[in-house]
Write a structure and sequence with these properties.
Layout lengths: L3 H12 L10 H7 L3 E4 L4 E3 L2 E4 L4 H17 L9 H19 L2 H4 L7 H8 L3 H25 L2
Helix pairs in contact: 3-4, 6-7
């Protein structure tokens, strides 16, 4: 059983024929979603343009996912918003980033899920892979507990 966000990401990726970790990259996804990606000193999104701050491939991938969340799920101009609402959007975009960069449905297809596997397959940094693995293990444990309760 997936969360709403995990379902949303799975359905989004499948709708643009992204099914494997090797398909997950900025150019591929931007092209399929008709997005323009440019690079400047500060990352943001405007209309169908996602502006990234130049960095390592892993940093750019993470920033792309973060800004993609704003593009897909948020409305309004943060310059005009209350700080608490901005904080909420940023929290949501950060959480989205973990699930978009390393989708749960793809993790479920792997025989072995380790930090190194996540780093190499999904092109993310060690700390990011470690945190995503913690999230995945927590979810897996929760699924097992729900299943065990259903049979007791």
């Amino acid at each position: 059983m997936y969360t709403h966000l995990e379902d949303y990401i799975r359905d989004l990726l499948k709708s643009i024929s992204i099914q494997n970790p090797s398909d997950l990259n900025i150019e591929n996804i931007a092209n399929r979603m008709h997005l323009i990606v440019t690079y400047k000193k500060k990352a943001f999104r405007h209309d169908n343009e996602i502006v990234l701050q130049p960095g390592t491939k892993q940093q750019e991938w993470r920033l792309f996912a973060h800004e993609l969340c704003h593009y897909l799920r948020h409305y309004g101009n943060q310059l005009l918003m209350h700080k608490l609402f901005i904080d909420l959007q940023e929290y949501q975009a950060n959480y989205f980033t973990y699930h978009f960069c390393v989708p749960t449905f793809m993790l479920d297809q792997l025989k072995e899920v380790t930090v190194d596997v996540i780093m190499n397959l999904f092109n993310v940094e060690h700390e990011f892979a470690f945190r995503r693995l913690e999230m995945y293990h927590s979810k897996t444990f929760e699924r097992k507990m729900i299943s065990a309760r259903a049979y007791s």
